[in-house]
Amino acid sequence: MRDARWEVHLTHCFREANKVADTLANIGVNLNVPCMLFRQPPREVMDALFADAVGVGWPRKVRS
Question: Is the whole-model pTM more than 0.85?
Answer without folding.
Answer: no
